[in-house]
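Appendix B, record 7
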Amino acid sequence: MSSNEKSVRIDVVDVGAIHAPSDKTILSALEAADVHIHYHCREGFCGACRSKLIEGEVEYTTDPLAFIDDDEILPCCCVAKCPLTIKVPL
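C-alpha cells (predicted):
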C-alpha cells in the first residue's frame, strides 16, 4: 500500500488485526488478509457474509437487500468509516 492510501484497522475476533484500504470493501480486505469468510455475492443480497459489528461504523457502497440485524454488517458491500471490531463466521 502506498503512503498516499488511507487504511483503517479492523480487529477481527479470533483472528487478529487487519488493515482495510478505505476504498475497498471489508470483504476484499478480509480476503487479502487470508481471512476465510463465506460469501456468494458482492452485491448485498444473499447475506452469506453477515458478520457481527461489535464496534465502529461502516458505510454501504450498495444498499443491502439481505436482512441484517442492527448489530450486523454485510462486508461484501460496505467500507469501514473508522476502526472496527467485527466477528466473522469462521
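Remarks on this record: Residues 11 and 17 are 4 Å apart (CA to CA). The first helix runs from residue 26 to 32.
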